[in-house]
Design goal:
CATH superfamily of the largest domain in chain B: Class I glutamine amidotransferase (GATase) domain
Helix content of chain B: 10-25%
Strand content of chain B: 25-35%
Number of strands of chain B: 20
Strand content of chain A: 15-25%
Radius of gyration of chain B: 20 Å
Oligomer: heterodimer
Radius of gyration of chain A: 28 Å
Shape of chain B: globular
Distance between the termini of chain B: 60 Å
Largest sheet of chain A: 7 strands, antiparallel
Number of helices of chain A: 38
Largest interface: A-B, 59 and 55 residues
Distance between the termini of chain A: 38 Å
Number of domains of chain B: 2
Number of helices of chain B: 10
CATH architecture of the largest domain in chain B: 3-Layer(aba) Sandwich
CATH class of the largest domain in chain B: Alpha Beta
Strand order of the largest sheet of chain A: 14-13-10-11-12-15-16
Largest sheet of chain B: 11 strands, mixed
Chain lengths: 1078, 386
Amino acid sequence: MPGRRDIHSILVIGSGPIIIGQACEFDYSGTQAAKVLRAEGYRVILVNSNPATIMTDPEFADATYVEPITPEVVAEIIARERPDALLATLGGQTALNVASELSRTGVLEKHGVEMIGAGLDSIDKAEDRGRFKEVMEEAGLECPRAGYARSMKEAVEIARDIGFPIMVRPSFILGGGGTGLAENEEEFLEIARNGLHTSPVSEILVEESVYGWKEFELEVMRDRVGNAVIVCSIENLDPMGVHTGDSITVAPVQTLSDREYQEMRDDAIKVLEIIGVATGGSNVQFAVDPDTGRRLVIEMNPRVSRSSALASKATGFPIAKIAALLAVGFTLDEIANDITKATPASFEPSLDYTVVKVPRFDFAKFPSSSPELGTSMRSVGEAMAIGRNFPEALQKALRSLEVGRSGLLGDTHSDFLVAFSEEELLAAIRQPTPERIYAVGEALRRGWDVEQVASESKIDPWFVDQMAWIVEMQPEIATDHTEEVLRTAKRMGYSDRQIAHLRGEQETVIRRARLQAGIGRTYKMVDTCAAEFEANTPYMYGTFEDESEVPPAEKPRVVVLGSGPNRIGQGIEFDYCCVHASLALRDAGYESVMVNCNPETVSTDYDTSDRLYFEPLTVEDVLSVIDAEQPEAVVVQLGGQTPLNLAEDLEAAGVRIAGTSPASIALAEDREQFAEICRNVGLKQPPAGSATSAAEAQDVVDQIGLPVMVRPSFVLGGRKMKVVYSLEELAEYVRDIYGEGDPEVVGNPILIDRFLESSVEVDVDAVYDGHEVLFGGVMEHVEEAGVHSGDSSCVTPPPTISDEAMKEIVRGTNELARALEVRGLLNIQFAVKGDEVFILEANPRGSRTVPFISKARGVQLAQVATRVMMGSTIEELRAEGLVPRGELPQDFVAVKAAVIPWDRFPDEDSVLGPEMKATGEVMGIGNDVGVAFAKAILAGGRVLADRGQVFLSFADRDKPLGLAVAQAFTMLGYDLVATTGTARYLSHHAIDAEIVNKVGEGERDIGERLSNGEVALVINTPRGGRARSDGLTIRQAARRHSVPCVTTIQGGLAVARSLRAGPGAITKPRSLQEWHQT
Amino acid sequence: MAERPGVLVTADGEVFRGTAIGQAGTTVGEAVFNTAMSGYQEIITDPSYAGQVVVMTSPHIGNYGVAEADDQADRPALAGFVVKTMSRRPSNWRATGGLDEYLTERNVVALSDIDTRRLTRHLRDRGAMPVAMGSDADSAELAELAASAPTMEGQDLAKNVSTKSSYRVGAVGERRGRVVAIDLGIKRDIIAALNQQGLDVDVVPYDASADEIAALSPDGLFLSNGPGDPEPLTATASTINRLISELPIFGICLGHQVLGLALGASTYKLPFGHHGGNHPVRRMGDRRVEITSQNHGFAVDLWSLTEREAPPASGLASDDLLPASVETEVGTLVPTHQNLNDGTLEGMRLVDLPVFSVQYHPEAAPGPNDASPLFGEFMAEMGLVS
């Protein structure tokens, strides 16, 4: 048989926490790989520190290590497990880096581990830019002309040789500082001089500029005998200069002639050969001069990438799964195409639809950062849409983003563009930002020439014309109410909501008219082959055509609504829950029907559910799926806020919502009704009120006192949540909220709670079936209340909660589950001060902590909840084995730590607050809190030097607790340095700390110490209000020099505790299977 | 311009409505679907589509306009052209015009806004069949036309697209030899690929005699692609038969099928043919896979040269769907290439003579270039390169 039999066990490395540029696509790829390798009979050992991944569910591997992905830890795992092979090409850059390091340091050789997929030399060739260019040119492929200069003389020589425009990039500068585009020699001299000055090694890269060129990516698969296929071609709507992760992209390629495309295809295959990718998937990126067709190779990744996930979803070709099979020796022609079954994987998918991916940004979370897009990726998620033409796919993708848009213009969100002056509009078209696409639409709506818009934006005229085609229809849609126009509008991707907006009608009126006219959605299949062969995998997308291909159903169906594009506050955790819902439904004898539009996820893998609808999560699109599928029920409580926002409209349309009713969910959100419930069951709440104006807000504060926590209702992830210490701040906050006209915010009251200082926050996840509460677990937050739970670290079992308080937490959970008539999941947040317990909020739905707690306790809460929603009792599930008998096991301490994308937003202050900023999380497991912490910290990418200085600067209110922190680090052997005030306070309490100057205030200031590596750790807790600029400077300097920075006292204590666990603790990895056995 | 409604009706009565583009009027032909995602101009001008209505499965057609260099013949030979969406504005530095006007100028009856996926599924499930389509026609009328239209079997279409008189196209670069190409509907890029090898190419009509060909004293004989059913090409087959021991021979597509007939094999019609640029073909020798460009509705049946029946296909294509070798009057013939989608024959060669052929298109145009080394192989067979 084709699979290699000299290999028995394979170590698969995951990608760790979700960060910008490395998201859940690697869970999708790792899960696919683990599944198929096990199915082929290999023993799979898996390492990934991210608990919210499906791949780390213990049933997906033989040994699952939720451990930090560092060379040291992975080396230990290798020593324990002695795998025959290492597969690192499916875990992003993280896995590739660790594997390279293990190979370079001889660990792999020592243990006889073979790197399969791509070897060290290929990785080096692909990643070392100089070497890459060299080998490409040797093979006759062209890269941008470039050279390194260490003096102005050299720079000028290179520039003259290349010709303008020229891009200058200083070497060894993070975040692209000093990079600049020079159109002529004069500009060049200035930029080059600055660049040489900025670069710490006085070196600049002088490179031919390809800014504004057309950008393409090809996804290539290659097997061990050299067979190669292009799985997918992708064209970027935003041309060169915008990171491909931040670009709107389209599949397949639209504007290349066959000759050009085939040459690019030949080049892409040659690139894999030259780099020496033994087997697997790689993506190769090209730039093409729009005026001459000149083609340059820009880069390649010798591994599965974000684009591969997109390509898999866009074509139905499971790249990661096939890559795993190729790595163990199969050839492409030996693997069947999953979708057709009868044809092989050695072919190139043909698409009879158009796919558009649009990135989702969260710049609102990082208000100090400019939303101008460039070469550093800053999007946090993406939505993909499929349509029978580009306009339809684009409009579907835009409404999938959930940023208030219903398509390309024609909604309240885009109306502000009407007020733009011509100059403003021109500027908005020229500068790539998340909003540019709408500005392009507006210009075209005003009748600007396609050629002009194309030349100003550098967006290819074909795409511009397609967008013109969309917006040109708007006057007709507004005035002509015939069936013909309605049908055409739907085929152009217009949503009912846009049509309603253009006609000044209600959306429901349009829907009714449309259905009366017989204009319903048809569903077409994504089948890899443009219908050439019969497909058996119901992977569907909606469009408006003659024929629908929804297959007849054999069993009752249940629809699971996914969570849409990742965003801060709603990420992989919710997808994890939806995937488990689907698995549970299949087990229970239903056909599971998934609706989602996020291409990165496991939920949108065509074999996760019985049927997959790759559709926007709007009322209109979801109701159409429901009309087509006639499900028994719809699961809305596991996909975060996205499906919850649809629940009431769905119910109003007669859809049965599974589990907890939308009324109960709304009840929990309703302050007054919820307060009444709490009173009835005797639960304490912090004093609170709500307001829809500044005056009302002040009245509330007069009653309850300061400080207060303020936030708009009905948002997830703590958007716009803030602790306010003064009336002045409060007034400013109210102005800020209602001033922006954000439809998610306006009309919803601002919630005001008394902020409980120095309390401990606790999260509970539980399932209630109407008879019994199943306690998933109680998690104690490390950071005090006031730091968003998504950004806070947490520990389970809770280390400092008293028995008395715990009893109250249990009682409160039971009472609320009953009072809210929960059927399914319930998440409650409590604040604990001594034995006193306050309830902060209750949410009868899946929470961000479900995957973490499921892993910590060894029970699949989302599956249990899904079964309960469909009518099972917990007792029945116990009999079935889905719920363990007796108390849930608590065999170890688990710590969850958040990972925040500060590195992408260098202008932000890295202070934790009530507004969530984390993109991902890691889990540390140990026998005690210290070890678990140490692992979580390491897994989050923070490495502490074991000696050196610890810099302390505490806000006054933190000083008493700060003493403990200072003592702890002294005992660990670190030298303390502190700002004047903090040092004085410490010396009063007999702790020595050297006084260090603030940045720019004298010799050997803190900035200098950070830059020369004297400081191991910065602990800087921010003062309230606005007097934080000194702190900000220090925190930013720490970040610049990659020195870990902790901004809370509790965080500082946790770090000290983890250090006490000793360096050996973290290098004793243990698999989940072992943990759960004991 | 006001939109004209257009309609297409299949021989079994399915009606498809859209917009008429290109030339006004009606047309009748066998509908086939093509799954290539680029290369519409090469497809439109490929003479092998004579008598056929080509349905493009790719939903946006015309995006990069047209360029003269992409034409495969002086004029399109296809009967009609059907797309989902015709581009309004082409964009490509090579483009000299738009596809819409190109179709009109060349009198091609075409439709846009058709549910091409529904049509494709229909053809896949029921097989390629005649259709009638056009503007200004009612569906009942078209239904009648479609139902009474002849099928491809037995139609001698090559004579309509073959050159009427011989002509020569000179080698590119250093001249290394000369071949005669029998034009059954030859694509320009095939001639260009031969020229690129340093060959002068004498293109002769489909009915050129063996003596006429021999009189040109070529180094080899090339058999071109072309439309439809090979069986009516009995004269061409006997010409090949006469020359088979005299000259190295390379055949492509219809040329491959006629070679098969010349060697005594029979041919048969595939349910809906192979038309696209993504067909996996395995070389039986080294088992390497090429992604190939294909356009044919008929195939050579090697089992017809044996006493045995073709085994039933199941699962992935395997070698035993083809006989390991068969005997012909001029010696042993072996299959060299196999289509991995359906196990059909994609290439063959005589063991003792420099005669070989492939069912697919090594010249691409449109499609992948994976198989382009075959032209070099022909050179080697002719002894023109080592």
